[in-house]
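Researcher: Structure for this, please.
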Amino acid sequence: MVQNNSVEQWVSEMVKLCTPDKVVWCNGSEEEKRRLTKEAVETGELIELNQDKLPGCLLHRT
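Model: Predicted structure, token format:
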């Protein structure tokens, strides 16, 4: 997936150190954006605004 060996090694070290449930590599594709946006809306992390007035706009509060 990654073409940079240094990055791959660092991630492997961090996985051993932090023991995450999973590691997700982001590729920046439109499909990935749709999937992550859908997930964030379903969990309430993002709130869809009025899509008639503001198509594609979402609200995220920190």
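Researcher: Any notable elements?
Model: Strands lie at 47-48, 58-59. The radius of gyration is 16 Å.
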